[in-house]
Amino acid sequence: MSALMPIDLRCEHLFEPQGLNTRQPRFTWALQGSGRNRRQTAYRIVVGSDRNEVEAGHGSHWDSSRVASDESLLIAYAGRRLRSDETLFWTVQAWDEQGVVSGFSSPAMFRTGLMEQLDWTAHWISRSLVPPGGRTPPQDTVYDNPYSARPADYYRREFSLDRKVKRATVYATALGLYELHLNGTVVGDQVLAPGWTDYHKRVEYQSYDVTRLLATGRNAMGAIVGEGWYCGRVALDQKRAGSHYGSRPALICQLHIEYEDGSIEIVGTDASWTCSNEAIVYSDLLLGEKYDARLEQPGWDRPDFDDAAWWGAEETSPLPKAPLIDATRGVPVRRTVEFHAKYLHASGDGKLIFDLGQNIAGYTRLELEAPRDAVFLMRHGEALQPDGQLYTANLRWALATDTYISKGGRQVFEPRFTVHGYRYVELTVPSGTRPEAVKLTGVAVHSDMPVAGTFACGNDMLNQLHSNIVWTQRGNFLSVPTDCPQRDERMGWLGDAQVFFNAAAYNMDTAAFFDKWLVDIGDAQTAEGAFTDVAPSIVYTRFAPNPPRGAPGWGDAGVIIPWRMYERYGDIGVLDRCHDGMVRWLDLIERNNADYVRRNAVFSNWGDWLCLGPATSKPLFGTAYWAYMAEIMIGVAGILGRRQDEARFKAMHRDIRRAFRQAFLQKDGRLESDTQCAYLMALGFGLLDEADRDSALGHLLNSISVADGHIQTGIHGIRLACLVLAECGRADVAYDLLLKKTYPSWGFSIENGATTIWERWDGWTPERGFQSVNMNSLNHYALGAVGEFLYARVAGIEIVPAGAGRRLLLRPLPDRRLGWCRASYTSHAGAIASAWEYQDDMVLWDVTLPANCTASVELPETVTDVTLQGDTLPGMRQENGLKRFDIGSGTYRFALRAS
Ligand code: BGC
Hints:
Blueprint (H helix, E strand, L loop, with lengths): L4 E7 L14 E7 L7 E9 L2 H5 L6 E2 L3 E2 L6 E2 L10 E10 L11 E4 L13 E3 L25 E9 L3 E11 L1 E6 L2 E2 L15 E8 L7 E10 L1 H4 L18 E10 L4 E5 L5 E4 L2 E5 L3 E5 L18 E5 L8 E4 L5 E8 L1 E5 L4 E20 L4 E7 L1 E2 L5 E2 L9 E5 L3 E5 L6 E9 L9 E10 L5 E5 L2 H17 E2 L1 E2 L12 H14 L3 H14 L32 H13 L2 H21 L25 H23 L2 H22 L11 H9 L5 H17 L10 H11 L3 H9 L6 H6 L12 E2 L3 E2 L16 H9 L1 E3 L7 E4 L9 E8 L2 E10 L2 E8 L4 E6 L3 E6 L8 E3 L2 E6 L2 E9 L1
Parallel strand pairs: 14-22, 20-29, 39-43
Antiparallel strand pairs: 1-2, 2-6, 3-4, 3-5, 3-7, 7-8, 9-21, 10-15, 10-18, 11-14, 11-16, 12-13, 12-15, 16-17, 18-21, 19-20, 23-32, 24-25, 25-30, 25-31, 25-32, 26-29, 26-31, 27-28, 33-40, 34-35, 36-37, 38-39, 40-41, 41-42, 42-47, 43-46, 44-47, 45-46
Helix pairs in contact: 4-6, 4-15, 5-6, 6-7, 7-8, 8-9, 8-10, 10-11, 10-12, 12-13
Bound molecules: beta-D-glucopyranose.
Beta-D-glucopyranose (BGC) binds next to helix 4.
């Protein structure tokens, strides 16, 4: 058997991260090795600044020596103190179950960023309001639009290099959005940097290796800065820029040039930079972009450009208190997938309707040939009205309109600092323009997380459902997990995100993305201990002067998401970091609810939002989540070794469970409000005694048949629905719900053309058309939480609380209606695959489990016999009618005989 080889080296959840802000980065690897039951018994990590030496197993910074351990996730660096702006390489070797040692893995790189605020010698700069040296900036009050959105600011600075450069790194960020240029080239491939954080507290900077962009002699560095989340329009209010954070965008960047002789030179932003406006008349996330190509200044980002008409930038201190300039934790936002837009029809004068075929978040690239001064207008929408016109009522006041003014000739336009949620484009063209004269391409833009999961089965509708879930995730994971990408909202709603977390984490590697968002959640927590409804938290008119404090199920994400991060990625560091905030939230709830029924401090108290039929009792809903959080806290306390906490939360959990049953469980076994969600929560969160579970299941089934076999829950019940039914031995009913095509169901939306998950079951119905109410996103992920069921139970790849990423549960639920199912999930410990297929009365089940991972297998009662091809089955146990056994790594083919 070959040695176990470490692969997929991650540092702080990322491949080759740039600009880390920690002196103790953590290392993760997967292991490759043929055969079964492969285990790591020891490892050795080597870290150093010279790649070749590291590859040979010598490190200038750290040699852990042989450590006897099976751990391979998030091992903390413990070498020489790391400095800012360093490039390091690391490698790892592993010993297997026989004590055979591997060679060193191919080294991976990581880079430290500017770890201290004092490392920032550059200054924040803004376009000056007061003209220095007689060069007059344009009036700030002249706007070209009713919303007074402002032109983007262009900055530049030239410098000379007289020696050969060994390495150059630029660290940059903006209050606003920026695009960095060096010698005529856009730096990096990310867009919408620096992303959204609470700019009152922190802004993230990005690091780019620009060694190859520099030249000996004259160089020019430039930046375009737009308003973005900092001072453009965000969320629900049509407020003028500045009402959430600041009123003037600002830029800071610092280029570190390291010469062959080791000396370092820094070029940073300061008053020596000049600024101007150019072709971006305005660019706003919600309104769209207006671009007047006639105003372009070719060559502005190259050396030897005549900037005599530009004026001096001003050094500013952006807010009453300058925000912390923090390293990027998340993943960059990038352009990922393109869609050719198909011309459909003309709609009114000069309006051409195009269709991408897929609802996305992003923007449209417009290619055209037109005379100077011709104006093109692109409006974006998710659907068409019955009369063929663009449906925009659901955008509320988000204009989602891009305007392009031609400079003459062939041209390509791509807006920079705006994103639209759309499938259709209405292009207004100058009269006489034929549809063939323009080319429109939809460009999807989102936080570019590595793909983690694949899912396919023998049912087309379910495959479309899976695709809709993935696209809804792509459409909404943009720096923060937003509720929707199209209307004037786009906020990081905590409730939606915690419900969707598991589905999302199967689809993509969300570790770094959520790690960053947990910082936003922490930044938002109020002095009294309240997590908020949204993070980054903003005060919007409806709730002023307070930020919206978290409702049950929403604020609770501050406890639930750190736990999910631990379950999936084994990240104890997250638990440690979030622990105090989690406790403060539970303190606040307990302080206000002495009888352990959660009626107080429930703030907006949304409940099982967007359910159909009768609403679930809100105290029941809140209390159930409280119990669930207390249970999580018991786990957290155990892992962190906090014995007192553990005792406290055990008592809390017991008291809440008791209070729940006393307050909500009626004599006939019904729960208050008698809704699907009520039973799902009680069963899913383990709030009933064994004796009461059967009758609760009976009532749950009854509430489904009363709804003619349909789902009725809102966004919270939905995550539990299929999972709980399967857990209670009624996978048949779970599949019934999953495969329904009549209203309300996922299938209904798909039958009616959905390519993303709708916000509400009744977003469109034949009788009423689109919901007339003002809240009707067609791209909202919460009801897509069922994606977790597809991976975890249909395919059977299940993440378990105590698994910490390396121990799994395999519990597939084959169903003839699907015929076959094939899924994979690439965890940080390696790739897991599960595929089953009916062959007559047999189900063939193929499983692959990565080295150093183990799984418990559990097969349903319907499986009467199990054999393992070419081998004897590991000791099987029969428990509660279920067949159980454990397996180690390797590839297996089981034959299951199903009744
Ligand atoms: C958002 C939801 C959110 C809800 C809170 C809506 O406007 O779109 O996703 O959870 O408000 O009730």
